[in-house]
Design brief:
- The chain is mainly beta.
- 6% of the residues lie in helices and 61% in strands.
- The protein contains one helix and nine strands.
- An eight-stranded antiparallel β-barrel has the order 1-2-3-4-5-7-8-9.
- Strand 2 (65-79) and strand 3 form a beta hairpin.
- The longest helix is centred in the first third of the chain and has 17 residues, at 2-18.
- The two termini are 35 Å apart.
- The model is unreliable at 8-30, 52-57 and 233-239 (pLDDT under 50).
Length: 262
C-alpha cells in the first residue's frame, strides 16, 4: 500500500511537470500560492488486534470505541497546473478512544445461582503535531465555487496524553438477592510513558473539500500504518503489552474542518 501510494504521488508530480498547461485559467484566480487556517473536530479510533486479550483470554476480543477530539491547523496550497495543487498543513489535534471488556464466572450450585463479574475499562487521550501533504484535483463549478478531491500522506509526532485504567469485580448471589462489589481499582498514566505507545505515526490521507470564495469545508480520512503499541514486557499495572500478545494498534481518524483561504 505504501509503495503504491508513493508511486502514484510521484507519477502525478511527473505528469504535472511535463504537462504543457497554463498555470491559471479564467475560472481560477491568478494566484499560485494561497494560505489558510482551519479548525474542526476529529473522530478517532485505534484498531487493536492481539493474540489473546489484554489481561486475560476470558475477556474476549478488545474493541476500542471512537471518541471525538479537536483539530487546529495552518495550510499552504501551491498550484502546480490548471487543476492540480499540493497542499501542506501543520496542525495540532487531540485523539481519543475507549475500551470496555468484561467476563462472568458462573458459580451456581444446586441450591443457589451466583456469578462473579470482572471488568476492565480504558480511556485513552493523546495529542499530536501532524504534517499532512495532499495532492488535490480541482473541479471548478464557476469562478467562486470548486470541489477538491485529494490523495496524500501524513506524518505525526505524539506530544502527550493520558490513559485511565479501571478494573474490578463484583459478586451476585440470587439466594440472598445480594450484589457485592469485591474490588475496584482506578489508575491514571501518561499515554506515552514507559514506552506504552509509539510517539511516531504515519499513513494515508483521503480528502474531499468544497470551497466557496475564501471559505472551505473539508472532510478527511486518515489511515495509519504505524503500529502504535510498543510490545514490551508486562508490568504490574497490566497496561503495557507483552510479546506474547503480539498487539497491533493503528490509528483511524475522520476530520471535519472549516477554514479560510487567503
Amino acid at each position: 500500500m505504501k509503495k503504491f501510494f508513493l508511486a502514484a504521488i510521484l507519477a502525478t508530480m511527473t505528469l504535472a511537470s511535463q504537462a504543457q498547461i497554463q498555470w491559471f485559467s479564467a475560472e481560477r484566480p491568478a494566484q499560485r500560492v494561497t494560505k489558510g487556517a482551519y479548525i474542526g473536530v476529529d473522530v478517532s479510533n485505534q484498531s487493536l488486534e492481539t493474540s489473546i486479550s489484554l489481561l486475560d483470554s476470558r475477556y474476549g476480543a478488545v474493541s476500542p470505541k471512537a471518541k471525538a477530539g479537536f483539530v487546529l491547523g495552518a495550510a499552504l496550497d501551491v498550484a502546480i497546473i490548471k487543476s492540480i495543487s499540493i497542499k501542506g498543513a501543520l496542525e495540532f489535534s487531540t485523539k481519543a478512544c475507549s475500551t470496555s471488556n468484561e467476563y462472568t464466572l458462573d458459580l451456581s450450585s444446586s441450591s443457589a445461582s451466583s456469578a462473579e463479574r470482572h471488568w476492565v475499562k480504558m480511556d485513552m487521550t493523546s495529542s499530536w503535531l501532524s504534517l499532512p501533504i495532499v495532492a488535490n484535483y480541482h473541479f471548478f463549478i464557476n469562478k467562486d465555487m470548486q470541489v477538491q478531491l485529494g490523495l496524500g500522506e501524513y506524518i505525526a509526532l505524539g506530544l502527550g496524553g493520558s490513559l485511565k485504567h479501571n478494573y474490578g469485580n463484583e459478586f451476585y448471589d440470587s439466594k440472598n438477592y445480594a450484589l457485592n462489589k469485591l474490588s475496584e481499582t482506578s489508575n491514571s498514566y501518561s499515554y506515552f510513558s514507559e514506552g506504552r505507545f509509539s510517539r511516531f505515526d504515519y499513513g494515508l490521507v483521503l480528502s474531499a473539500a468544497f470551497q466557496w470564495k475564501n471559505l472551505i469545508g473539508n472532510i478527511q480520512y486518515r489511515h495509519g500504518f504505524q503500529n502504535l503499541v510498543n510490545n514490551t514486557s508486562v508490568n504490574g499495572d497490566g497496561i503495557r503489552f507483552s510479546p506474547v500478545l503480539n498487539a497491533n494498534s493503528k490509528m483511524r481518524t475522520w476530520y471535519f474542518t472549516v477554514g479560510w483561504m487567503f
